[in-house]
Design goal:
By secondary structure, the chain is an alpha+beta fold. It is built from five helices and 15 strands. Strands 5, 6, 7, 8, 9, 10, 11, 12, 13, 14 and 15 form an eleven-stranded mixed β-sheet that branches. The longest helix is centred in the middle third of the chain and has 11 residues. Belongs to the pseudouridine synthase RluA family. One of its GO terms (biological process) is enzyme-directed rRNA pseudouridine synthesis.
Length: 263
């Protein structure tokens, strides 16, 4: 184990500072905020304060450790501030952290769509932000989704590979295009209902609207997804949920939402 102990002010390590920096992707710029004592095998943190959006609306925290936090995002809430709306999941998480006397604000490691619900992973310690970002970029953070889609499906570890690009005729929409970025997902059917199916999708890449585009391409669009041809059945939002996240010690499954229950 490389880290002996860590808090908001310093880290004690068991190896060398160089190995710590390589493991956690610490850049030269980042090192300016650190003081290293090789004799005591200690790194002291001196990060500048940041102006951040804070919101004290309640937030469901499903997991928390020294440097990570997993929060539940309801539908119709942004993950990040878009410049027009200060009530975001990130602002609520930082309100929670501030009320609990945390020294640093959290930063979302990934995002999910405005109408999508479920788990969002945050980094709550700046020392580990680059490490988390790199693991997300290299797809070491496992993410599974569930969705209610139109019609009956029979997916059994069905691997879907699509090239996804922005639709130049509709800035809000993505399309499958030969010049798009490769997008890979694994589809499984969990249950068939009268006129829809509950499916599980593991994404191996992280393209914008990846699951929504691929579901539509299979002629089973997600319910309530009017952008991609999904039938509107209620006002509960896009029936897509970030259902399971696995990363290091984090292994969290989202609680069941009533809006996904069908007979």
């Amino acid at each position: 184990m490389l880290i002996k102990n860590i808090n908001e002010n310093y880290m004690r390590y068991t190896t060398t500072s160089q190995e710590i920096f390589e493991t956690f992707c610490i850049s030269k710029t980042h090192k300016k905020h650190l003081k290293i004592d090789e004799e005591k095998k200690t790194i002291y943190f001196n990060y500048p304060e940041k102006d951040i959006e804070i919101n004290y609306e309640p937030v469901d925290i499903l997991y928390e450790n020294t440097f990570l936090i997993v929060a539940f995002k309801p539908p119709f809430l942004l993950v990040h501030d878009d410049g027009n709306n200060q009530d975001t999941l990130q602002a609520r998480v930082n309100g929670y952290l501030q009320l609990n006397q945390s020294k640093y604000p959290a930063q979302a490691i990934h995002r999910i769509d405005y109408e999508t619900s479920g788990l969002v992973l945050f980094c709550k310690h700046p020392f580990f932000q680059a490490y988390c970002d790199k693991n997300m970029e290299e797809h070491h953070i496992k993410k599974e989704y569930i969705a209610l889609v139109q019609g009956h499906t029979n997916y059994k570890n069905k691997k879907i590979i699509s090239n996804i690009a922005r639709d130049r005729h509709n800035a809000k929409k993505m399309i499958i295009h030969p010049n798009g970025k490769e997008s890979v997902s694994i589809f499984n059917t969990l249950k068939n209902y009268k006129d829809c199916s509950l499916i599980q999708v593991t994404i191996l890449t992280g393209r914008k609207h990846q699951i929504r585009v691929q579901c539509a391409s299979l002629n089973h669009p997600i319910l309530n997804d009017s952008l991609y041809g999904g039938k509107k059945i209620d006002n509960t939002g896009l029936l897509l949920q970030s259902h399971h996240i696995q990363f290091n010690d984090v292994d969290i499954t989202c609680p069941q939402e009533k809006r996904f229950i069908r007979k």
